[in-house]
Specification:
Length: 128
Amino acid sequence: MDVDIYVEVEREIRKEYVRKFGEESQENSYRCFTRDEQIERYAENLIFWLERMDEIDLEDFGSKGFTKSQIASNATCSLITKMESTLPSDMIKDIIGKIWTKTPELIRKSLVLPLLAHKYGIFTEDTQ
């Protein structure tokens, strides 16, 4: 992977992330959130990364699209790992359910969402 492309893409994604979630999203401070706020925050964050995984170019492993997908894939895995190590399973189920209802178009593009939906017992007509 070309380091210059990685640095450029990582900066672009960071700017997109800050535009969507605000400057405070980059801080290491602690805040309290209600259960519903946490579900919304995790759902929006997971949607953000899953949408960027869609931009892969398998023909050009050194491309910006491939690099963006690689960064997003790593962030998605990290977020799911964090969710599974810190949140109760019923809350994870609610996060996946929220994504499921908010972004049905993402379900058809993503391999991750159907796997998580199956793992946490979320079934709709699209998953059966």
